[in-house]
Amino acid sequence: MLSVDSLTKRFGDHTVIEEVTFEVNPGEIFGFIGANGAGKTTTMRIVMGVLAQTDGTVTWRDEPMTREVRRRFGYMPEERGLYQKMKVGEQIEYFARMYGRPAAKARSDTEELIERLELTELRGRDLEALSLGNQQRVQLAVALVHRPELLVLDEPFSGLDPTGVDALADLLRERRDEGVPIIFSSHQLDLVERMIDSVGIIHDGKLMSTGRVDDIRAVHGSQVMRIRLAADDGWTKRLPGTVVATDGDDALLDPGSMQRTDLMQALQQVGEVEYFAPERARLADLFRGLIS
Hints:
Elements: E1 2-11, E2 14-24, E3 29-33, H1 40-47, E4 55-60, E5 63-64, H2 67-70, E6 73-76, H3 88-98, H4 103-116, H5 132-144, E7 150-154, H6 162-177, E8 182-185, H7 189-195, E9 198-203, E10 206-211, H8 213-220, E11 225-230, E12 242-247, E13 250-254, H9 260-270, E14 272-278, H10 283-291
Helix pairs in contact: 3-4, 3-5, 8-10
């Protein structure tokens, strides 16, 4: 449904993104992850027409992007861009009308989102009187209120408390189940992994990997083992291979080229083996491995 093909953006001699290519299909949540300055925001701005690309194409349903097409999208930029002296309820409804929703529908959609995002007690207050987290909820409501065909959300969970995170996650899953493709960026990789259907990992303007997380895990996931030994203090320092992390009483070990039978024998020289099993690579581990 959304296709980004060989997208490149240069400012003078500086290349911000280079030949970024991915697709987001109907009913799919696409997590776009990378460090600050990696190119996530630039890519999203080009999709939304805020910036013009140097090379490459962005298409929607196999057709070139136009201003009218983008009016049917929902966009939440990283920087808040709402009216500080406008009341919350009025503001959400105003943007619904700006997107072309009929008055009655704009009002009912606004009421639904105010309730879902727990803004009921704040609806009559000016935006500037709200905490940053509650301002974020209003910004999200504005992006969602016109029932967009595509959602592009830049760090939507930033500043939200756990209740707000859960409310937004539920809303996004509902939109996905209705067939809406969703792109969002976030630094909270554990949260990303729980929500997404596919992912794009970008580093220094280049897309390092894209696709279903399990497919990326199969190609790039290292053979990390979770180890637990009954042994003297400091036993992790005597392990073969490389200890990539510790987790409570466990060590996460990259055994390198060692076979499992040889690894087990080596562990038994250190202490009594209480637990020994392959560890499913987390998204955070895949990310670190791909950008290192």
